[in-house]
Every structure is written in C-alpha cells, then in structure tokens.
Specification:
Oligomer: single chain
Low-confidence stretches: none
Shape: globular
Structural class: alpha+beta
Distance between the termini: 43 Å
Mean pLDDT: 97
Largest sheet: 7 strands, mixed
Bound molecules: flavin-adenine dinucleotide
Strand content: 5-15%
Length: 593
Amino acid sequence: MADYKAPLREMNFLLHEVFAAEKLWAELPGLAGAVDRETADAILEEMAKLAANTLDPINRTGDEEGCQWNDGVVTTPKGFKEAYATFCEGGWGGLLGNPEYGGMGMPKMLGAQVEEMINASNISFALYPVLTNGACLAIDAHASDALKEKYLPKMYEGTWAGAMGLTEPHAGTDLGIIRTKAEPRGDGSFSISGSKIFITGGDQDLSENIIHLVLAKLPDAPKGPRGISLFLVPKYKVNEDNSIGEHNDVNCGSIEHKMGIKASATCAMNFDGAQGWLVGEENKGLAAMFTMMNYERLGVGIQGLGASDRSYQNAVEYARDRIQSRSPAGAKQPEKAADPIIVHPDVRRMLLTQKALVNGGRALSTYVAKWLDISKFGEGEEKKNAENMVALLTPVAKAFTTDMGLDCTILGQQVFGGHGYIREWGQEQLVRDVRITQIYEGTNGIQALDLVGRKTVATGGALFELFAADVQGFIDAQIDREEMAEFIQPLIAEMQRLREATENMVAATQQDPHAPGAASVEYLHLFGYVAYAFMWAKIVSAALPKAEADSFYSGQIKTARFYFARLLPRTQALAGSVNAGSASLMDLEEELF
Ligand SMILES: Cc1cc2nc3c(=O)[nH]c(=O)nc-3n(C[C@H](O)[C@H](O)[C@H](O)COP(=O)(O)OP(=O)(O)OC[C@H]3O[C@@H](n4cnc5c(N)ncnc54)[C@H](O)[C@@H]3O)c2cc1C
C-alpha cells in the first residue's frame, strides 16, 4: 500500500483560491482574529504529519486485530492508546471547541480538511474523537453552565471521551419509539435505565472517562419524537473537585463483530439506574441532538471522502507500476515486457472518476463548512441565510459523498484487479470501512427523505431557491468569460433540469403521498451531481488564470472536463427516474415480493 500523503496543495487551493477563506475569516464577526493563513497552514501541516506517521501505520493492524471485549472491558488494538495520547497532546480534540472552555474555536472550513486527513489515514481511529466532538457540540449548545464547566474542558483535552446513545434494538431510524427511561431522583439528577446498541466508543481503553449523551423518556412524556429528552451520563461519576469518582451503573454488555471499522468499538450498553443530568429542556432532546447533527453529518460525508482519496492515492501508484498489455496506440515503454496499466483508457476512466469525485467532494464539503461557519460566526440576515443553506445541503454532503465514497473505493479496488480483492494492498479494507458511512448518522435513504420532505416539499422549494440564487450569482459573474463557456453553459442547463425535477416533485406531492419517497434517492443524486458541477466550475474559474504556468491548475481543468463530459450526463437518467412517479414502485402486491 502506498504511504498516505495528505493532499495539502489541493486543500490550500480550495481554501484560499476557490473559497477565499482568509478573507471570510477576517470578516466574520465571531471569528475575527482567531485564525489567519499562517495559523491555518501550520495546523494542516501538523495534521498531515500526524496522519502519515501515527494514524496510517496502525490502520491495517487495527483492522486485523480489531477491538476485544472481555468481561465488560473493551480493549482497542495495539498502538491505539499511544496514538490517542499523541492526538490529545497535540490539542486536536479541542480544535473547533468553544474557547470559553478551553477549545481553540477554529472554523469548520479548516476543521473539514483536518478531519479528512484523520479519516483518510484511519477511519476507525477517527471515530473516537468524532463522537467526542459531537457530544461536546450538544453540551456546549444546550447544557447548563455547571455541566459545561465540569465536562467540556476535559473532553476538549480528550482526557474524557464522548459517546452518543440514540439507537435501541427496536428503534433506529424511528427514535420516537425508544424505551430507555429517565426517573427524577429528587436531587436534580435522573436515574437512566435501558439498553442501547451500536454505540460507537461506548467503551474503550483510550480515555479515563466516557461521557454518554443518552436519549431517554421522562415519566408521562408525550408519545413519539416530542417526548424524548437528552441526558449526560458519565461512565465514572465526577467528584466536586473534578476527580474521577465511583463507577456509574453503565456497562458494556458486548461489542459487535462487523464488516469494517474493526478498530472502532461498537458497543451494546446497559444503563441500570445510572445517574444522569438533563441537557437542554425536557422533551426537547431530539431538537438538541439536531444542533450537532449538521456537523456530524458533514463529518460522515468527509469519512467517505477520506476513504475515497486514500483508495485513489493507492490506485494511482499501482497503475503507474503494474505492467500488463500494450497501449492501444502502440508500446509506451518498449523497453519493458508490457506497458503500465495507466495507459489503458478503462483504467484511466476509473482513476479519473475517483479524482473527479474526490476533488468535487472535497470542494462540496468545504463549501458546506463555509456555510456552517457563517451560520456560527455571522450575524443577522447573513447568518439566517447560511443556516438555511446548511439545512438544505447537509443531506447531500452526507449521502452523496458517502455513496460516491463506496463507488470510489470499489473503483480503486478494481484498478488492482485480483490484488484489490486480497488483503495485502489495503484496497478491500477501504471498501469495508467506508460502507458504514452510508448507514449510520441516518441512512442515506433517510437523508434523501429529509432533502425532499423537510427541506424541499415542506418549504415549497424556498431553500432550493437559495442554492439556485448562489449558483446564479456565480453564473452571472462568469458569463462574459469566453473560456468559461464550456462549463457555464452545461451548468445553466443542469440547473434547469434540477429546477424542473424539484418543481415536478413538489407538485406531484399534492396528489400522491408516495411521491417524495419514490423520487428521493435519485433526486438527491441528481442534486449531488449538479452541486459537484457547480464546484468544478468554481475550481476552473480559480485555476484558469494560472493554468499555463503550472500543471497543477491545468490538471484541475482537465479533470473538470472529464467530470462534465463523463459523469455529469448521469443526471439525464436520474431526472427520468425522479419524474417517473410512484406507481411502478407501489403497484406490486406485498405478497408478490
Ligand atoms: C458501526 C455502527 C456504528 C453506529 N454508531 C452509533 C452510535 O454511536 N450511536 C447511535 O445511537 N447509533 C449508532 N449506530 C446506529 C445507526 O445510526 C443505525 O443503525 C441507523 O440509524 C439505522 O437504524 P437501524 O439500523 O435500526 O435501521 P432501520 O431504522 O431499521 O432501517 C432499516 C431500513 O429501513 C429504511 N427505513 C426506515 N424508516 C424508513 C422510512 N420512514 N422511509 C424509508 N425508509 C425507511 C432505512 O433507510 C433502512 O434502509 C451505529 C450503527 C453501526 C452499524
């Protein structure tokens, strides 16, 4: 397997030449002075080293050894403890955290690049800090000052990690039917009882404490999603002086044996009257969870992106090295017994598909992170607009990037032929590891329903219009640049196709309750391909002036041409499916399946 090399040039190009990050950071009222180019460069360079030297080397061994469960205690694979200690010493856990409680308060645009490197080098490892970050976001946004003061500094340090307890054996997508109970203890705390499954990092041996955020129902809570509350339940109770106290009644009953991310502990957790504290308001637990959901979902999209880039890097190196057959245009390396497989059009198709989807996905993640930053650090109308953009684009950034993530890792495996199927080269691990990203944090089917239902039909297409206005603003600014016409004209046509599909879907829903669910996944993919086209047009716009002087930029333009010629036409088929209605899906009687 090739050594992981963080794509710093690509990341810096996106941040500073495509999205003018430094200017935005200087202008955002809540961020002014917190970060400049020099700081950002140093952060990215440091993480590039950590990813390559510390996290990448334990990726395969972690997969082979996996996590172990013994008598209620989980052990992570060899090297994970040391790597986690190094990660925490570097202060990485608090990168985006609230400075009032010891976080560094960095923008998500920067955090997105850092996350990509962690995920590309080791998704299993990445999940431990990812879940801690999610728990910190929810605590910071909703918990009392006392809870924030007690827990956030240690969690940003990584000394205490976080876990998110939503799923139960009978309740995954439909959290409204959870059974975990919370009884008031009369001292301001609650007794939490119930079983949670699939809890990432529910137990591990990396941190001295684990802070569980748990969804549970209070006595007499309303039925369904409006009767769910959120509780903070530490594995070890914390004494007045912040030292670790007695073991709470929280135990890990077992860990799952699964397809991939084997070094990430996926735990069945039992809460037997464990002491917990309410986070946010009673019965508003799901809403509190949603605060951090946009960050988490973008983060899962970035897991798909990281695995794709890792697979691409391996595949390129292999395709340059592996010799088989001659180029159809005559021998390229006559001194060798055969040419490297990178000469073959079909191998180039696979590599370019990966490259186009990786760079497009990285651009979309950075673009959504930009809106997250404006929604967090901005003010007034600008902030409101950004919140709406985040709401619309998050399901696309999560589901499209992870669906493309599986496609990319499979292509990277295919480039290796039979050598991609065996373990030695690491390509099959990436396929197995990335697969979960389509399932957790809300399945991609549920993301698509969110996009068409809550974000599009329920708003009468208003959020779509915000995105359309941003694309149109770019088109208007570029329309007189002749050299941009080959990208701008198709972008105009594709936006029209997406608009028609959106309007058809909103209209069809008036007559047919199945219409949104029938169109949703293909609609999300249509949206994804058009959003990537917008990203590629932005990339070209930034690259064109420097293309003659530097092949990095001409490479961007050539990859954009491939994207527009070979991948974007998939929208025609997708629009056909979106517009097909629900009848052919719903007609077949259940017993005929
Ligand atoms: C490795 C791993 C780690 C995880 N980590 C965590 C964690 O840390 N914390 C946590 O709380 N959970 C975690 N989960 C749980 C994960 O989030 C759930 O598995 C996921 O949300 C889906 O729930 P489910 O498995 O019960 O599937 P179901 O909800 O039973 O869904 C089954 C299928 O039905 C579809 N479906 C369901 N409802 C609808 C609908 N209304 N319309 C259309 N289709 C529908 C789904 O899309 C899916 O395809 C993890 C899971 C795994 C495997």
